[in-house]
C-alpha cells in the first residue's frame, strides 16, 4: 500500500517540474535542521548571572558606605544638646589657650610680625576683619540698647547668626544679642607678648597690659548678623550706621 504523499511535495509539484519539486522538498523540508531550546539553562550562564548579581550588590553596598550621613534637624540638635556647654566646661581658664590661638590667627590675617610695627587701615584690613572667625576672641560690650549687657567682657565660645556666647572671668556663660550692640576687642603687637615674663605668658592678657601700640577695634553687631561660615564668602560694603 502506497503511503500518502507529503502535502508540501504535492504543492511543490503544482508549481515546479517533478525533479525540481523533489529536490526542493528534500533540501528545504526533509533535511532542514530543527533547533530545539534546551529545557534547562546552561550552567555557565547561571554562573555568569550570579556573578553579575553579586557585582551589583557589592557596588550598591560600596556606594552606600560612601554616602554622607543625613544631617541632624534643628529639633534633633535641641534634643541631643550638641551645642550646649556643660557646667563643667564653663570655666574661663579653659578658654584662655583658645584666646591665645585666636591672637595668632589675627596676627596672621593682619600681617603683623614680630619686630615690626604694623599700621592697619579700614581699606586694607576692613574686609579681612569682617569675614574673620571670632571664636576665641575676647569681646567687651561698650554700647547696647540692652543696658544689662553693657560692660560684659569674656571669651567667645560660640558665634551664632544673631548672638555671641561668651565666658566671663567669673565663669559665667552669657548670651549677648548682636542687634543694636557695639563690641570692642583689642589686638596687641606680637612683641608685647614676648616682653612678658614666662609666668605671665600662660595667663590671660588684660586690656591694660596689651601695650601702647595695641590695635583697638569696634564691631557693630547689627551689621555682623551672619554665621562664621557664611562670613568667609560674603563681601561686605562700607556704610554709615546711625542705630546707636
What does this structure look like?
The chain has 244 residues and is an alpha+beta fold. Helix content is 37%, strand content 16%. The chain has helices at residues 7-15, 18-30, 43-66, 74-80, 96-110, 122-130, 190-194, 198-201, 228-231; strands spanning 138-144, 153-159, 163-168, 173-177, 181-187, 215-220. A 6-stranded antiparallel β-sheet has the order 4-3-2-1-5-6, covered by helices on one side. The termini are far apart.
Instruction: Calculate the terminal CA-CA distance, rounded to whole Å.
Output: 126 Å
Count the E strands: 6
List the quaternary state of the chains.
single chain
Strand arrangement, largest sheet?
Answer: 4-3-2-1-5-6
Radius of gyration: 42 Å
- Count of alpha and pi helical runs: 9
Secondary-structure-based class equals alpha+beta
Largest sheet: 6 strands, antiparallel
Please give the share of residues in helix.
25-40%
N-to-C series of helices and strands: HHHHHHEEEEEHHEH
Shape: rod-shaped
Low-confidence stretches: 197-204
What is the strand content? 15-25%
Overall pLDDT level: 80
For the structure shown, list the relevant keywords.
244 residues, 6-stranded antiparallel beta sheet, 9 helices
